[in-house]
Amino acid sequence: MSAAKKYKVDLGAGITEDLAPEPEKSAPAPPPSGIPDPMTLEQIAAVSPGDRRQLNVGVPEALLLHRRTAIYREDHGLSATRQNIVAAAVDEWLRARGY
What we know:
Elements: H1 12-19, H2 41-45, H3 65-76, H4 82-96
């Protein structure tokens, strides 16, 4: 058996830069009051996926939240996604409590 030969491959500066890790985005600074301005469903929908942060929560199936949000969308003629409806609802709930 012959020994395997190792080859060095130069990818070039452009490729090497593309492979460099991207700097992490810092979270936006909170406003002086600590509570951001409210957003409409349209404003929430306009937020790009890169400017969103996942919020994974398990909810009791007995509350039928998936079904009820779908019915709400139909009753109000909304094209809003469940994610946007939940974002608006949680924001409203926290805002009502001073957070």
